[in-house]
């Protein structure tokens, strides 16, 4: 019983600390990091080979994906964004994102494309999923915002033939995260300064 209560609180503490750390980056640092990470992501082989790539729209000090999305469009990739599933709680849908897509604010205060089933891409047809995260560790374990959205999406990712890669600031790296049984480790994380691979 004690373990059930202690582990989540440690995860919560790490979440708060790292979220604060990334929010403290200056606009100039954020700008430079975003450019460098976009350049690096475009050289990452699974992305070079991909036709369909899911990204996310940044908030809360996350690495700004604006330059990355522009670069993906320019390279001719189809770009998708996560949308909170309207009925299936804790699940995400991935919708096509064009230059002129209509965006709406969701209940978690993140912009997402307006739901239109014609724009939904099944996971089986997604080549690369660029995942947001709050913290990642030496082994590729990932800690997110706490909704379990990406843990659910990444369940059995190998069977979908999709390749996940985290995107984060260098300051989001920690030595070790307390893992839960549902946590799905990432095979790679791109930061402004390097590509981590496991
Ligand atoms: N950019 C981005 N998009 C994403 C994610 C993410 O981590 N980053 N997600 C990754 O899973 C999903 C959203 N997950 C989230 C989970 C919890 C909270 C959250 O607790 N937000 C507020 C409180 C909510 C409120 O104001 O009602 C907070 O900042 O504390 C936000 C997003 C899907 N889209
Ligand atoms: N595959 C799953 N199936 C059902 N519930 C899950 C699954 N993965 C996670 N959950 C539930 O989601 C909740 C949040 O999980 P966790 O704190 O690990 O999220 P996170 O990794 O921080 O968030 P996210 O993946 O959205 O970025 C937990 O209570 C967990 O029970």
From TrEMBL:
InterPro entries on file: FTHF_cligase, FTHF_cligase-like_sf, NagB/RpiA_transferase-like
Keyword Chloroplast carried by entry: no
Summary of the function given for this chain in its UniProt record: Involved in the removal of 5-formyltetrahydrofolate. In vitro, it is a potent inhibitor of various folate-dependent enzymes in the C1 metabolism network and in vivo it might function as a folate storage. 5-formyltetrahydrofolate is also used as an antifolate rescue agent in cancer chemotherapy. Catalyzes the irreversible ATP-dependent transformation of 5-formyltetrahydrofolate (5-CHO-THF) to form 5,10-methenyltetrahydrofolate (5,10-CH=THF). The reverse reaction is catalyzed by the serine hydroxymethyltransferase GlyA (SHMT).
Keyword Transit peptide: no
Annotated family: Belongs to the 5-formyltetrahydrofolate cyclo-ligase family.
The name this protein goes by in its record: 5-formyltetrahydrofolate cyclo-ligase
An example Gene Ontology molecular-function term: ATP binding
Signal peptide per UniProt: none
Reaction catalysed by this enzyme: (6S)-5-formyl-5,6,7,8-tetrahydrofolate + ATP = (6R)-5,10-methenyltetrahydrofolate + ADP + phosphate
Cofactor: Mg(2+)
Residues holding substrate: 57, 62
Biological processes, Gene Ontology terms: folic acid-containing compound biosynthetic process; tetrahydrofolate interconversion
Pfam families documented for this protein: 5-FTHF_cyc-lig
Residue ranges that the Swiss-Prot or TrEMBL entry lists as coiled coil: none
EC number: 6.3.3.2
EC class (word): ligase
Organism this protein belongs to: Buttiauxella warmboldiae
Positions of ATP binding: 11-15, 142-150
Assigned keywords, A-Z: ATP-binding, Ligase, Magnesium, Metal-binding, Nucleotide-binding
């Amino acid at each position: 019983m004690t373990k059930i209560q202690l582990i989540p609180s440690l995860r919560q503490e790490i979440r708060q600390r790292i979220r604060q750390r990334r929010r403290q980056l200056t606009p100039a640092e954020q700008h430079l990091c975003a450019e460098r990470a976009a350049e690096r992501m475009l050289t990452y082989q699974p992305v070079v080979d991909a036709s369909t790539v899911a990204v996310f729209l940044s908030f809360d000090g996350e690495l700004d994906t604006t330059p990355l999305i522009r670069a993906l469009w320019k390279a001719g990739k189809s770009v998708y964004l996560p949308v909170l599933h309207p009925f299936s709680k804790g699940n995400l849908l991935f919708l096509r994102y064009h230059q002129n897509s209509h965006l709406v604010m969701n209940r978690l205060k993140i912009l997402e494309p307006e739901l239109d089933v014609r724009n939904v891409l099944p996971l089986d047809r997604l080549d690369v999923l660029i995942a947001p995260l709050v913290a990642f560790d030496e082994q590729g374990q990932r800690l997110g915002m706490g909704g379990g959205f990406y843990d659910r999406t990444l369940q059995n990712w190998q069977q979908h033939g999709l390749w996940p890669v985290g995107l984060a600031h260098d300051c989001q790296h920690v030595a070790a995260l307390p893992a839960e049984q549902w946590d799905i480790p990432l095979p790679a994380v791109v930061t402004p300064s390097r590509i981590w691979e496991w």
